[in-house]
Amino acid sequence: MSDIWFRTGEATVLAADGQYTDAMPEVLIGSVRGPAGHAFASMMGQVQGHTRMFVVRDLNQQVRPATMMTTKATIHTLEYVDLLGGVVQGAIGDAIVDALAEGILPRDQADELCMIVMVWLDPRCAEDENLDKADLYRTNYEAMKIALERAMTGRPTVDELIANRKSVKHYALDGVVEY
């Protein structure tokens, strides 16, 4: 039985110039027997506008640990669904498998853990005639690997957060709050 009950991580990887492919996954990792497992099972139905799906690398290639992904933005078009269930899902799946191979995720607990991933896919991607799918893959792959590592290592630590409290601020606070 896994001793990993409830770990969280997030990361942001920015798009190439002129693209809307920023990736910002948020991940919950935990035992299938604990609160993460309960939340995972509760997500087995669909909610209008926020598709939920197992992460698969391709047909018949569901990743381990079992991972459910959903969107942070409301889905309005089939083009959006195609990108979410295609490039984004593939990138996240590849990152998970590589995290297992690299020891970021414990291979011996792959069937005892589950994960929930909330992903950001900018709605403008589905409308962009010049969408760079390679950049969409890159940002989601890189961000997912970082989020997994942060979840498994507890980063940033409380000490890191306190140390950078006056030097790091949310981008939306520029001109709003001065440190």
Automatic annotation (TrEMBL):
Residue ranges constituting the Formaldehyde-activating enzyme domain according to the UniProt record: 8-171
InterPro entries reported in the protein's UniProt record: HCHO-activating_enzyme, HCHO-activating_enzyme_sf, Ribosomal_Su5_D2-typ_SF
Gene3D superfamilies per the UniProt record, alphabetical: Formaldehyde-activating enzyme
Pfam families listed in its UniProt record: Fae (PF08714)
Keywords from the named record: Lyase
Full protein name: Formaldehyde-activating enzyme
Organism expressing this protein natively: Ancylobacter koreensis
Designated gene of the protein: fae
